[in-house]
Amino acid sequence: MKYSIAVAVALSALALSACDRPTVVVPSAPAVVAVPGPAGPQGAQGAPGASAEKGATGATGATGAEGVQGAEGAKGDKGRTGGDTIVVVPPPAPQR
Description:
The protein is an all-alpha fold.
């Protein structure tokens, strides 16, 4: 137990230093750059294409049936009177 910490530190230092390998740089061959030459003669003009025929217009669809009116909702109960309640409505904010 006396030497276990010292041995662990020595082994970790040895293990970490063994992983450090220098990187080998290999010089590459010089790059060849292609230089474009003069432009060649213009090619012959292509043959004109045939024009397409216009398609027929589609028929108008049928009109849908009219919907049924919905049922009337239930009526609410009458509200209580206000008593001495005061409602303060702030003025609208100015337009920017």
